Amino acid sequence: MATPWTLTFDCADPPRMASFWKVALGYVEAPPPEGFDTWEQWLTHFKVPDEEWDDGAALTDPDGVGPNISFLKVPEAKVAKNRLHIDVQVAGGRHQPWDLRERRIRDTVERLVTAGGSVLTEHEFEGRLDHVVMADPEGNEFCVV
Predict the structure, then answer these.
(1) Does pTM surpass 0.70?
(2) How far apart are CA 107 and CA 10, in angstroms?
(3) DSSP H/E element including 41
(4) Domains identified in the chain and CATH numbers
(5) Which residues neighbour 53 within 8 Å (Cβ) at sequence distance 6 or greater?
(6) In the prediction, which pLDDT does 71 show?
(7) Spatial distance between the Cα atoms of 91 and 97, rounded to a whole number of angstroms
(8) Between vectors from CA 111 to CA 95 and to CA 74, what angle results, nearest 5°?
(9) Are the C-beta atoms of 66 and 7 separated by less than 8 Å?
(10) H helices of 57-145, where?
């Protein structure tokens, strides 16, 4: 039996990061824990101070396939290249026609730039667009492939 796990981002602004990654991955806000109708009810029940309510955010795959993602507020800024990154796989693989793959990648990149991401580099394979390295609103690198 596999161990359940969550991908967690340390960040300065959890709600902003959750909003961006909802767009990038098609995820939704995680439901409140069992026994609570809302996150506000849970926060109030555990007497979390109001000023800490935005110190975290959580997303879940609406299809129940991908891992949960959490965002935790930390005081320090990102200072180096991340050693683990997400590949947003939209192109369908190298067996797909190049024009279709490129259109899917460019459409996704445009949508993610609008959502607050930035393009770092474009990479080619055999003279055609293969993937784009981007950064989320806090500088975490990821690829659109």
Answers:
(1) yes
(2) 28
(3) helix 39-45
(4) 6-73 (3.30.720), 86-144 (3.10.180.10)
(5) 40, 43
(6) 98
(7) 9
(8) 110
(9) no
(10) 98-114
- Say how many C-beta atoms besides its own lie within 10 A of residue 5's C-beta: 8
Which residue do the tokens 């996704």 mark? 108
Q: 43-60 pLDDT, tens per residue?
A: 999 999 999 999 999 999
- Give residue for tokens 């730039």: 113
The residue with tokens 């993610």 is 112
Structure tokens at 106: 């460019």
Q: Are residues 42 and 53 in contact, defined by beta-carbon separation less than 8 angstroms?
A: no
User: Structure tokens of 130?
Assistant: 């293969």
Are β-strands 118-125 and 6-11 bridged in parallel, bridged antiparallel, or unpaired? Answer: unpaired
Q: Determine the distance from the C-alpha atom of residue 113 to the mean position of all C-alpha atoms in its chain, rounded to a whole number.
A: 13
Measured between alpha carbons, how far is residue 123 from residues 3, 53, 93 in Å?
Answer: 35, 40, 15
pLDDT at 2: 87
**Helix, strand, coil in percent for the chain, rounding step 5:** 25, 30, 45
How many Cα atoms occupy the beta-carbon half-sphere of 67 within 13 Å? 11
Given the structure tokens 């190298």, which residue do they identify? 94
Token pair in block for residue 76: 């320090």
